[in-house]
Structure formats: structure tokens, C-alpha cells
Design brief:
Structural class: mainly alpha
Helix content: over 70%
Shape: elongated
Number of strands: 0
Strand content: under 5%
Radius of gyration: 24 Å
Order of helices and strands: HHHHHHH
Distance between the termini: 27 Å
Number of helices: 7
Largest sheet: none
Length: 182
């Protein structure tokens, strides 16, 4: 926890120094009013805070997308556990919790991914909106729509298509995350 405070205090210190330097060089003079430096600092901190919130939101969306993929790939393990239950109620509850958690996580990632369609949202972070950040959640939305039409847990062909859509969407979204980070 102490390292977090050190990092925050260093960030504030450097933002004050950078803002003060920019304020002194603004009109070529060595003296600038104190109000100008404070306003520049407030604007820089507000800009940094907005960038931090948007960047964190994009990364949380990616982590939840990874959870959706993990829950999707964990299906054979869940089915194996179902066979070990001796009480039918326990097996039904386990299966219900698994399906509900998997589907709610997928819908949440799709809804969070729709924020990438807002004009100017990702341009604050990266400058240009990377296309994988838009296409990845749309592919997940197509898989959710397909799941609402066909029972993918009973139809092997539909499950394979759903499997490809979920993994392709995650791969595409991961390309966008890589593009933003690097």
C-alpha cells in the first residue's frame, strides 16, 4: 500500500513540475501568476483522471471478456462435476449458477463493449479508435444473439459456431488492447 502512495505522490509532484514549467514558458517571462499554475494543474489532473478511468474501463472489459472465455472453455469440466453429484438438486443448482454466470458475464461484456462505439471515447486514450475494440464486442453480441435463437448446449454444430465466435471475438478484442498498450 505504501508503494501506491509513493507512486501517486510522484505523479502529483511531476505534474506540478511539468505544469509550472509550461506556465513559466507560456509567454517567455520568468513570472506567471499563481492562479495560472493552479488552473493548469487542475486541468492536467482532470485530463489524466478521465484518461485513467477510460483506460481502466477498457482493460476491465478485456478481463471480463477473458472470464467469459474461461467460463466457456470450462464447460467440459463443469459437466464432469455434474456427474459426481449424488443429489439432483445440487446438480441443478450447480448447472444453473454456471449458465447464469456465464451468460450474465457475456451480456455485461457486450454492454461494456458498446461504449467503444461512442465517438471520441477511445480517441482520448489512443488518438484513433482501433477497429478491434469495436469489432470484438460486436462478434460477442452475434454469439449472444445466436445463443438466444439456438440452444448451443444441446446442438453440437451450434456449439462449435458459438465456440468460434467467442474465441474470435476475444482474439480480435485482444488485438485492440495490444494496439492501445503498445
Amino acid at each position: 500500500m505504501k508503494s501506491v502512495y509513493k507512486i501517486i505522490s510522484l505523479a502529483v509532484f511531476f505534474s506540478v513540475i511539468l505544469t509550472a514549467g509550461a506556465a513559466f514558458a507560456a509567454n517567455g517571462s520568468q513570472f506567471v501568476a499563481k492562479e495560472v499554475v493552479i488552473e493548469d494543474l487542475a486541468q492536467n489532473l482532470a485530463r489524466w483522471f478521465v484518461w485513467f478511468i477510460m483506460y481502466t474501463f477498457v482493460l476491465v472489459t478485456w478481463v471480463l471478456y477473458a472470464l467469459v472465455v474461461f467460463l466457456h472453455l470450462a464447460r467440459p469440466y463443469i459437466l464432469q462435476i455434474l456427474n459426481k453429484f449424488t443429489l439432483r438438486l445440487g446438480a441443478d443448482l450447480w448447472w444453473t449458477f454456471y449458465l447464469t454466470g456465464r451468460d450474465i458475464a457475456a451480456v455485461a461484456v457486450f454492454a461494456m463493449g458498446l461504449f467503444n462505439l461512442i465517438p471520441g471515447y477511445l480517441s482520448e486514450i489512443h488518438g484513433l479508435v482501433p477497429w478491434p475494440m469495436i469489432v470484438g464486442p460486436i462478434v460477442l453480441g452475434m454469439s449472444i444473439f445466436m445463443k438466444s435463437l439456438v440452444d448451443v448446449d444441446d446442438d453440437p454444430t451450434a456449439f462449435k459456431v458459438y465456440h468460434v465466435l467467442v474465441l474470435a471475438g476475444f482474439g480480435i478484442y485482444s488485438l485492440g488492447i495490444y494496439g492501445i498498450v503498445h
